[in-house]
Automatic annotation (TrEMBL):
It comes from Undibacterium curvum. This is PLP-dependent aminotransferase family protein. The keyword Endoplasmic reticulum does not apply. In the C-terminal section; belongs to the class-I pyridoxal-phosphate-dependent aminotransferase family. It comes from the Bacteria. One of its GO terms (molecular function) is transaminase activity. PANTHER family: HTH-TYPE TRANSCRIPTIONAL REGULATORY PROTEIN GABR. Residues 20-88 form the HTH gntR-type domain. SUPFAM superfamilies: PLP-dependent transferases, Winged helix' DNA-binding domain. Pfam families: Aminotran_1_2, GntR.
Amino acid sequence: MRTFNLSDYLLQYLDKTSDTPRNRQLYRLMRQAILDRVLPPDTRLPSSRDLANELQISRNTVLYAYEQLLAEGYVEARAGSGTYVADTVPDTVFMPPTPRGSNAAVSDWAQLSQRGHRLVAHAGASPQQWGAFVPGVPDVTRFPHKIWSSLQSKIWRNPAVATLTYGGGGGYQPLREVVAEYLKGSRSVDCEAGQVVITNGIHQSIDLCLRLLSDPGDVAWVEDPCYWGARNLLTASGITIRPIRVDPEGICPDHADLAVVPRFIFVTPSHQYPLGMVMSLARRRSLLEYAKTHGCWIIEDDYDSEFRYNGRPLASLQGMDSDERVLYMGTFSKTMFPGLRLGYLVLPPSLKQPFVTGMEELHRSGQAPLQATMAEFMIQGHFSSHIRKMRLLYGARLEILQQEIARHFADDVQVVGTDAGLHLALRLPEKCDDQLIAGQAREQGVIVRPLSSYYHVPDSRNAGLVLGYACVNDANIAPAFDVLARIIRRHL
């Protein structure tokens, strides 16, 4: 049997042209040889001088590798005897026997828990978050980053100790105060600063509500269609979803739905996502009365309410609630930029202390310098000014997109959801496969979402496309829609 020669082995893999230093290469090769049992335990290694001569490299290079292996426990030095490979194989007591017939190479999905599988199996986030016609993404290139940078620099020049430690109390207090004032003035939300909890966005707000107010098996009404992110969080938390159809007045439960009393009612009353209708006053009053009678929690996602192009933004559902049944949530992702990861949750007074405590236990508040910058941005009036400018910009882009749709299709498609927000929806004839259309558009560099993917009940799905226009330059709208229109026309 041929005796293993360490220097021959190393010479096969040492790469003199690599940017990786020779000493690191040598260390990694020897470590891998030990882990792969090419160098079995108790093997005596050559002296550093001998190995250096055989490899024709510096002795210091070999010494570095030996010292690093020794520090990490892969080898051991024996006084007067030399350096030996240590026994790195774990004790068998820590290695349960593999069941007969099992496959050691388990798939990624098979390793997940049931909850984990429910979450990732229906993931809807797109890997591309910019360009025509990605829904729900603002034009981040128009953000006043110089103003933001100046405010942030001022805070960082002399940061208070309290902003650099773990946060507490539901977020940075001045931000909670200015958010409460903003919501009272612009959305008719009935709240004080103590009811506001600063989160890192809608997903965390929903997750906090589910963790503190639900148990597995509880029922939740959700609009059908609805935002996939909220639906997936509910499913992953073990909540039983009861999809409720929407009509022109918003969520519309029938007698069978009313008989199944939910723990939660998830709604987007000011701008239904993704269809864009506004919940009527009569429907709002009925929903609040039902929640009061049966003890349900209404979770109001005030989606895109700031960007309304016909008239003033509508008042919130929370502002009509006199029985403390509504939890109101919003985010700065659309008004500022998504990478900011800041949102807010407005709680009924009876829940504010448990939620502040729960937030601290689950997530630990932080990012106080970031929250302080946001507070100053709002206090100094930059936030309101930015919203006004962006509302005009998005309104102009919406008009261009509507003109392009009319130019290509006239009455062949129905456009819905054009009164507010950052997107609109195209309803297509039922014979159209909107999943296929979206896939073909993606191959041509145009990103749209199939409307059918927002529905929970297969039989109620409508074919269509959801198009975002906020992050598309004016000049790019027509060329991008030309591409999409050619694809749609093949399916009409």
